[in-house]
Write a structure and sequence with these properties.
The chain has about 350 residues and is α/β, with parallel strands linked by helices. The chain contains five helices and 16 strands. It is globular and about 70 Å long.
C-alpha cells in the first residue's frame, strides 16, 4: 500500500492566474510537483493496463490522477475563466500496523475577509475564496445525506427489542420486509468457537440466521463460511464498545445479507439463546445510515485519531458506502454525486 500512496494539495483557484478562455482549460488541472525520476516522473517501464495507456509507472500514476480530475471537472458548476489547480505529489505515506494513509490533501492557502466573502472572520480555502460571489449560499450549512435507510436488527422472541445495525460493503442489500428466521450461535469447534473463521456445521433448516463474533479473521471469511453452511443471513457482534461498525470488504460471491450489531447486543443475544429459541429479523430501519438523529452526516472520528482519515472522510457507517470514506468496499463508484458520495453536496452547502 505504501507504493500507492499519494499526497495532494489544492492551489489557489484564481488569485494571480491569468484570465483564460473557458474552452481552453480544464476546470481541474493536476500540477505535477514530483522531482525527476520519482513519483509521477518514475521512468520504470510498465505495460499499459486497460484504459490507462501510460508506458511507465509515473505516467500511469499521473493519468489516474488526471482521470479523477476530469470527474470533478464534469461535476463542478461553471467557474468562468478560473481554473482549480491541484499541486500533487505521489509519495510514500504512513503505513503501520495501526493503519495506512492512502492519501492526504489540504489547501496551500486560506483567506479571511476576502472581497465578497459572505462571512466575516471566516477562513476559506483558496478555491472557494475566489469563487464566492457575495451571496450567502450557506446559511446554517448542513449536508443532506440523501442516503436510504439501511437496516436494523429486531428480536421477535422471546422478548421484542430493536438492535441498531451497521452496514456491510458486500453481500445482498437488506430490503423490505427483511430476513426473518431462527437464530443460531456460530460454533466451528476450533479456537474461539463463535468467531466463524473455519468451516461451520450446516444450518439445521432453511431461512436461519447466524450470530458470529468479530475477530480472528475477516468479515468476508465469516460471511463466506456462513453462506457455505446454508445460512440466510449473518449478524456479526462487535468485539469492542461503541456503535455497530460498518463492515468493509469486497467479495462478489457473497449473496446473503450481512450486518453488525454492538458488543452489548451481541452478549444479550447469546444470553437469550442460552435460554431457548430466538427469532430475529434483519430488516429496514427508521434512521438514515451514517447520520445523526437530526439527519446530519457523520464524519469519521475514531479515538484514537487515524492520521489521514479522521475528520476528513465520511463515517464508515454511511450506506451506500461513500467514495470519500476510509474503507474499501465493493459498491464504490467513480461518481462524486449522491448517493455515491456527499462531497459535492458539502461543497454546495459551504457556498460553492
Amino acid at each position: 500500500m505504501r507504493h500507492l500512496a499519494f499526497k495532494a494539495f489544492a492551489l489557489a483557484c484564481a488569485a494571480g492566474l491569468p484570465a483564460l478562455p473557458t474552452f481552453a482549460i480544464a476546470k481541474v488541472k493536476i500540477v505535477n510537483a514530483d522531482g525527476p525520476g520519482e513519483g509521477f516522473n518514475d521512468p520504470t517501464p510498465l505495460a499499459p493496463s486497460g484504459a490507462n495507456k501510460g508506458k511507465t509507472i509515473g505516467q500511469q500514476r499521473l493519468i489516474a490522477f488526471e482521470h479523477a480530475a476530469k470527474f470533478w471537472g464534469a461535476t463542478l458548476p461553471d467557474i468562468g475563466n478560473m481554473q482549480i489547480r491541484v499541486f500533487a505529489n505521489f509519495n510514500p505515506l504512513a503505513c503501520t500496523n495501526a493503519g495506512v494513509v492512502l492519501g492526504s490533501a489540504g489547501t496551500v492557502t486560506i483567506w479571511s475577509d476576502c472581497p465578497q466573502a459572505p462571512f466575516a472572520n471566516t477562513w476559506y480555502h483558496s478555491a472557494l475564496a475566489n469563487k464566492l460571489s457575495g451571496t450567502d449560499l450557506s446559511e446554517g450549512p448542513k449536508v443532506d445525506p440523501q442516503d436510504p435507510v439501511f437496516a436494523d436488527g429486531r428480536i421477535n422472541s422471546p422478548a421484542p427489542a430493536t438492535l441498531p445495525a451497521g452496514a456491510a460493503g458486500f453481500g445482498a442489500p437488506v430490503v423490505a420486509p427483511g430476513v426473518t428466521g431462527a437464530l443460531d450461535l456460530a460454533n466451528d469447534g476450533v479456537g474461539v468457537t463463535t468467531d466463524g473463521c473455519t468451516t461451520l456445521p450446516a444450518a439445521s433448516g432453511p431461512g436461519r440466521l447466524i450470530l458470529i463474533d468479530r475477530g480472528t479473521c475477516t468479515f468476508i471469511a465469516k460471511a463466506k463460511n456462513a453462506q457455505d453452511a446454508g445460512y440466510a443471513s449473518v449478524i456479526i457482534a462487535n468485539n469492542a464498545g461503541g456503535p455497530p461498525p460498518g463492515l468493509g470488504g469486497c467479495d462478489g460471491t457473497i449473496t446473503i445479507p450481512v450486518a453488525s450489531i454492538t458488543n452489548t447486543d451481541g452478549a444479550n443475544l447469546k444470553t437469550a439463546l442460552a435460554g431457548g429459541p430466538v427469532n430475529v429479523t434483519l430488516g429496514t430501519a427508521a434512521a438514515t445510515a451514517g447520520a445523526d438523529s437530526s439527519g446530519n452526516p457523520l464524519l469519521f472520528a475514531p479515538n484514537p485519531v487515524q492520521l489521514g482519515s479522521s475528520i476528513s472522510h465520511w463515517d464508515t457507517s454511511a450506506y451506500p458506502n461513500q467514495l470519500m470514506e476510509p474503507a474499501i468496499n465493493c459498491n464504490l463508484t467513480h461518481s462524486v454525486n449522491v448517493p455515491q458520495d456527499l462531497t459535492m453536496e458539502q461543497l454546495r452547502d459551504v457556498g460553492w
